[in-house]
Specification:
Blueprint lengths: L1 H12 L27 H7 L5 E6 L5 E7 L11 E6 L18 H7 L2 E5 L27 H20 L4 E6 L1 H12 L7 E7 L11 H8 L4 H8 L8 H11 L4 H7 L2 H6 L11 H7 L6 H13 L8 H9 L16 E5 L8 H10 L3 E6 L9 H4 L3 H13 L3
Parallel strand pairs: 3-4, 3-5, 5-6, 6-7, 7-8
Antiparallel strand pairs: 1-2, 2-4
Helix pairs in contact: 1-6, 1-8, 4-5, 6-12, 8-9
Length: 406
């Protein structure tokens, strides 16, 4: 199957662009009747009666990041005693946690449960596409980062800011997808941050990846070494997949159905998958107004290396590059045993990126796993943790009950 997909990609790239009649327009290009499609994150939050604050911080390597905060619930003026920090996945942003709306979005749910909620934005997404001196539109150097740098620089900088602002010693960390990867990077590379996290909740965890099933990620992994064609299709610096590449995704993955075609021609859904059973079709224009939010191509290449190698390790620059950067011909593995903060893993059977075998291996490698929870719905997919109709029922309520143990 993988070879067939790769051959399809080569043939497709060598022909003129095709747009099959049954492909629907990308909803990000279409105007929605719902204003949440184009409102900013603070505008959406305040529209629904919640308080919101926005902050900008600078990392030690000069990236400028945006943080959003819901300091308390809609009907509460009491300052919360606990802080919850949320970190989004790849191609996403802080918008993920709120666009499902009040009573459904995790940020609202936590705020109403009495938490001071903070939402980070990783470098390179459209809310943190800034630097003190590099121009993201013209600079190769700006985009020379992977999720390693997000975990090593961005996450610690945002956590330190949150703790200083709230005058707290520690917080709860909840990550989705890449938001779990960057947590593992931070804790293994900078283990002093274990003391700053009361507990971490991994939603669709990604460490090891060689058993994931996403067809488009398999294509990227297949072409990861001979990168010339691949980079022309998905972007040399910033991940901006061509119409050819996304049309291929629509042809391979989707039938002639308006809902699935719209999803498959959106890069985020085409890579991560979706569950029609959990998908609220009325939210599609809003989701596509905020996602994909952007990422570096190197983030995807790093994940492709994980798929090919079966390791959870730093970026592989090749033998010569590794010797220069790491003093070894191999990129170093992340030491999961250094992650001593309590970890709770939430996974599902229908996840294209977080495969059960890989989750089990991650579970075995972590030093302080307090629980591993299978979502009680076989169709639950990678993005249902943030967009699913029953995400609160199937995941969030469990997370909140576990948080109350600490």
């Amino acid at each position: 199957m993988l070879v067939l997909l790769a051959l399809c990609l080569v043939g497709f790239a060598q022909t003129s662009p095709l747009t099959p009649k049954h492909l629907k327009p990308d909803p990000i290009q279409a105007k929605s009747d719902n204003e949440d499609t184009w409102l900013s994150v603070p505008e959406i939050i305040t529209k629904y009666g919640y308080p919101c604050e926005e902050y900008h911080i600078t990392t030690p390597d000069n990236y400028i990041l945006t943080l959003h905060r819901i300091p308390h619930g809609k009907n509460s003026k009491v300052a919360p005693s606990e802080v919850a920090y949320l970190q989004h996945g790849i191609l996403s942003s802080s918008a993920d946690w709120i666009i499902s709306g009040p009573s459904k979005g995790l940020a609202y749910v936590l705020a109403d449960e009495g938490y001071d909620v903070w939402m980070g934005n990783a470098r390179g997404n459209k809310l943190s596409r800034n630097h003190t001196y590099l121009n993201p539109n013209t600079s190769d150097e700006f985009w020379d980062f992977s999720w390693h740098e997000i975990g090593y620089y961005d996450l610690p900088a945002m956590i330190d800011f949150v703790l200083e602002k709230t005058n707290k010693d520690s917080l709860f960390h909840i990550g989705h997808s890449q938001g779990t990867t960057t947590f593992y990077v931070m804790m293994s590379m900078r283990p002093d941050y274990n003391a700053k996290v009361k507990a971490h909740f991994s939603l669709a965890p990604i460490g090891f990846m060689n058993h994931m099933t996403s067809p488009l990620m398999h294509i990227i992994a297949f072409w990861q070494k001979p990168m010339g064609l691949l980079l022309n299709l998905i972007g040399i610096r910033e991940f901006l997949p061509s119409n050819d590449f996304m049309s291929l995704g629509g042809n391979i993955l989707c039938g002639d159905d308006s809902l699935t075609q719209v999803l498959c021609t959106n890069a985020l859904f085409a890579i991560c998958g979706f569950s029609p059973k959990e998908m609220n079709g009325t939210l599609l224009p809003i989701m596509s107004g905020h996602t994909p939010a952007g990422a570096s191509t190197k983030q995807f290449l790093h994940y492709a290396q994980e798929i090919n190698s079966g390791h959870f390790r730093r970026y592989d620059y090749g033998m010569v590059g590794n010797l220069q950067k790491y003093g070894s011909i191999w990129a170093p593995d992340y030491d999961l045993k250094k992650i001593t903060a309590p970890v709770y893993i939430h996974y599902s059977n229908n996840d294209w990126l977080s495969g059960k075998t890989d989750v089990d291996r991650l579970y075995s490698g972590l030093a302080n796993v307090q629980g591993k929870f299978l979502v009680a719905e076989d169709s639950f997919n990678h993005l249902d943790y943030v967009f699913g109709i029953r995400a609160r029922e199937l995941v969030y309520n469990k997370v909140i009950s576990l948080m109350k143990r600490h």
